[in-house]
Structure formats: structure tokens, C-alpha cells
């Protein structure tokens, strides 16, 4: 117990040190370069903008958070479905794999305007953009994990009279969870990118929209405030994902 | 003929039946991988209800033979049937070189894995009794990672026996254990496997001589089986049994000559 309390304390301390260290570097650079506020505002100026625009920023942050979460959910669902169906059928794998690769050869920047055109200025085009960047890492790593099941486990299951479906359900899915975890981590880390790019291309709300507008009006502190909130959300999402994975992978402490 | 190995029916056992377990008959078995001929018209036969230890140098094809009997590999030609004339692939329980415990399942769930794979109800009483017999009653909920090598192997034995199959195939199951743990688990295995038809691959002449009713040496390329050697006395033979020393010595000489 002492050990866990100690690690928890050390973790929190490390997080705080990194956070204040980054702020300090930013501060020193901003002061040292003597740049005007519209080029690089100092932390206190940004804090002021953050506080002054709290209601406004909060509303837009909520929009972006929803886009990220829904995009993550949709991307996960899509990725898992693809991986499982490819693992279950070689024929499906041969047809789907090229489509997957093609889908990744088109940069999301190029696709985002089309998504806005098709799905509108609202939340759905951003959810789609986030889902598009997320599903590939999830599908690719989960599929890889599903393919690499320890052959001995499958042989054992076959001698026990397990159908292919039962092998998938009881052995391969669980065995592929660590691989799924690494895909999910990448997905969670890039999910905000998809959502914000969608907002940049065309939107009526969200942190990306705030940044774009603030930038155009040279309100750089507001832009920084929005960025700050976005990175807090990204770190928060990362932590939640890690907690979920720790719970799912209780049996594989190395990969959790 | 090879069709008989992969019977499409769901695996059923003649669990609880009082019929004596059948022996295994390997007939005209040929296995080729490209240019490589592992078996060419191999014939052998093991007695029902007895433990046959299968020996031979590495690479001679012992594991391949076991996997063919288990229905995991399709032979190029030939077949495997029970001495009762019925296919065996759906009447075997398999114990591989590693314990193959699933790391995310507790010991109890590992032992009863077969039932869940076949969507049967789990026989809790039977599983608990088996765990007690292998000395793991206190480790029901333990994950495999928290067990020692010997305990893991005992859990694997319980899982194998939970399957109620008349024929048990074992591929060097105890090779990773230290000598003392191995000697102890031999007694447990002999006691618990008694009455079933067992085919045990081993590299250890002592293991073969302690546990086997019959010893069978595979040698040559393509491999042929020597005639079975009967070992005097009932297994498990005590480590200081003079018969044991003798048959172990004979066996070692035979294996050295076959190389």
C-alpha cells in the first residue's frame, strides 16, 4: 500500500513538474524575445483571456469534446468491426485491406472540406473526420493482434471441440487486447486532430472555430487559451484511456 | 481415409461410460512437407487404458505424430483409428509442451475452458474436485502468472482431465520443471491418468521408465517405430525401484544406438 501511495504521489508530482516546466519555458521565451502580444502572449495574459472568456470558451470546448468523444466511439466501433471481420475471414481480409490502405492514403486535410460539404457545418462532419483518423490505427493493430494468437492456444481449443466462432470469442479476442490497447492509445492521441481540422475547414462552433476566428482578429491570447484547453482535454482523454486499459488488461501488466 | 481424422461432428466424449478406453492404431501413415518425408507408411498400435511413452531424438516427428492423432495436422495419407474401429480425434485431450494456460483466466476458468468453448454448462463440482486432487484447491481464483511452474503444470493436468476424454496425448508436458518437482508431478499424473489411454512424448528416459507401461522408440528418417517394450511393474515406479534403473539403462542405450 505504501508503495502504491508513493508511486501515485510521484506520478502527480511529475505531472505538476512537467506542466509548470512547460509554462516556465514558454514564459521565459516570451519575455526574452520581447515579442508583441499578438505574436506570443505571456502566460498571465493568456490566463486573463481564459478567465475573461470562460463562458464562451467553455461552450465551445464542450462542442469539441463531444466531437472527439463521438468520433472516438465511432472510430473504435468501425476499427473493431473491421479487424474482427478480417480476422474471421481471409476473403474479407483480401478485399478490405486495400480499402483500408487507400482510406489512409488520402490526408484528412484533403478530405475535411468534402466532409463539411456532405455532412454540413454541424458536429457530424467533425465526428466523421475524427472517426476517420482513429479507425485505422485501431483496426490495424487489433487485426495484427488477432492474427498473432499463440498457435498452441488455438490448437488446444480445437482439441476441445471449439468452433471458429468460439475460438475467436474465448481465445483470440482476449489475446489481442494488448494490441488493441496500443491502437486505442494512438487513436486517443490523434482524435483531437481530426475534430479540430474539421472545425478549421468549416464550422459554427468548437475550439478550432474559436482559434480560427481569434487568429483572424489578432486576438492571439484567445487562440492560446483555446489551445491550452485543447491540450488539457487531450491529456485528460489519454488518462481515461489508460485507466480503462489498465482495467481491461489486469492480466498483462506489461502492456497496461 | 484421412477424412476420418477430421470428423465434422461436435466433439463428444464417451464420458462416464464404463467402456474400456480404446487403444490407438496408426495405419499406413505418410506425412510429407514438400521434399521432406517425415513418415512413410508408418504403422503402430498402443494398448487401451495404458500409458505408452513415445521416445526418439529431436526432429524425428514425435510431435507431428501426436498432432496427427489429435486431428490438428492432416496426414498426406493413412489414418488413425481407435482399436474399437472408431475415429479418435474427437475423443482425445491434449496437453502441449507449454501449459497453455490462458493468462487472463483464473485457474478455475482455465480448467473449465473446454465447457465454455463448447457452450456447455460448467460442472463446478467436478472442476473443484479436480483442483483439490491436484492440490490447487486454494488457488481457484489465482491467475496463472502468480503460479509456480509446477503449479501451472498441475492446473494443466486438471484442465486435461476435466475433458473426460478416454485418450490423453501429452507432448513433453513436464520438460520445463526441475527434477524434484517433476518427480512429484509424475506420481500425481500417474495416479490421475490411471485407466486412460495415454500417449506421452518425452525426452527423459527416467520419466518414460517411471510412468510408462510400454515404451515406444521412433527412429530414422522417415521415422519407423520399434516394437513396444513392456516395463515390469506398475507405474508410477518408485525412484529407487531396481526395475526402474534397469529399464532406464536399457532405454538410454537404445536411444544412443538409434542416433
Overall form of chain B: globular
Counting helices, strands and paired strands, the structural category of chain A is mainly alpha
Number of strands of chain B: 10
Helix content of chain B: 25-40%
What is the CA-atom radius of gyration of chain B, in angstroms?
18 Å
Strand content of chain B: 15-25%
Describe this structure in words.
The complex is a heterodimer of chains A (256) and B (259). By secondary structure, chain A is mainly α. Chain A has helices at residues 2-33, 43-52, 54-88, 90-105, 108-119, 123-147, 151-159, 164-175, 177-201, 207-216, 220-248. In chain A, helix 3 crosses helix 10 and helix 6 (123-147) packs antiparallel against helix 9. Chain A starts with a helix and ends in an 8-residue tail after the last helix. In chain B, 31% of the residues lie in helices and 21% in strands. In chain B, helix 4 (124-133) packs antiparallel against helix 5 (149-162), helix 5 packs parallel to helix 6 and helix 7 (205-211) packs across helix 8. Classes of the chains: A mainly alpha (256), B alpha/beta (259). Chain A binds chain B through residues 150, 152-153, 155-162, 166-167, 170-171, 174-175, 177, 250-252, and chain B through 10-12, 67, 70-72, 90, 92-94, 96-98, 100, 102-104, 113-114, 116-119, 143, 145, 163.
Q: Mind sketching the topology for me?
A:
The complex is a heterodimer of chains A (256) and B (259).
Chain A (H helix, E strand, L loop, with lengths): L1 H32 L9 H10 L1 H35 L1 H16 L2 H12 L3 H25 L3 H9 L4 H12 L1 H25 L5 H10 L3 H29 L8
Chain B lengths: L23 E10 L2 E10 L5 E5 L6 H8 L7 E6 L9 E4 L11 H5 L1 H5 L6 H10 L15 H14 L4 E5 L7 H15 L3 E5 L3 H7 L2 E6 L4 E2 L3 E2 L11 H17 L1
Helix pairs in contact in B: 4-5, 5-6, 7-8
